[in-house]
């Protein structure tokens, strides 16, 4: 007589909502306000005022969502932010 065990596993998956993703910019001690502002204007098409507000939020709060949209559209923008030396990720 043999016994068989049934094993139940839970699989946790991280799903990416491709229609509503965000680029989050994180604070660092390396980049100047001017560099962050100029990069946001060029990369994320922010107005100068919007870029300055995001830079201040990042500085005082530690992070800020700088762009939302479809995942595929955010990937090249996030790559440009990283190439400019900023700390960012898509969530």
From TrEMBL:
The keyword Disulfide bond does not apply. Pfam families: ClpS. InterPro entries: ClpS_core, Ribosomal_bL12_C/ClpS-like. Residues 21-84 form the Adaptor protein ClpS core domain. One of its GO terms (molecular function) is peptidase activity. It comes from the Bacteria. Keywords: Hydrolase, Protease. One of its GO terms (biological process) is protein catabolic process. The keyword Cytoplasm does not apply. This is Clp protease ClpS. It comes from Aquimarina aggregata.
């Amino acid at each position: 007589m043999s016994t068989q065990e049934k094993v139940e596993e839970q699989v946790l998956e991280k799903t990416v909502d491709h229609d509503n993703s965000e680029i989050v910019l994180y604070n660092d001690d390396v980049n100047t306000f001017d560099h962050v502002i100029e990069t946001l204007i060029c990369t994320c098409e922010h107005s100068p005022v919007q870029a300055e507000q995001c830079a201040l939020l990042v500085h005082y709060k530690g992070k800020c969502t700088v762009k939302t949209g479809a995942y595929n559209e955010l990937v090249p923008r996030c790559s440009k932010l990283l190439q400019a030396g900023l700390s960012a990720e898509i969530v």
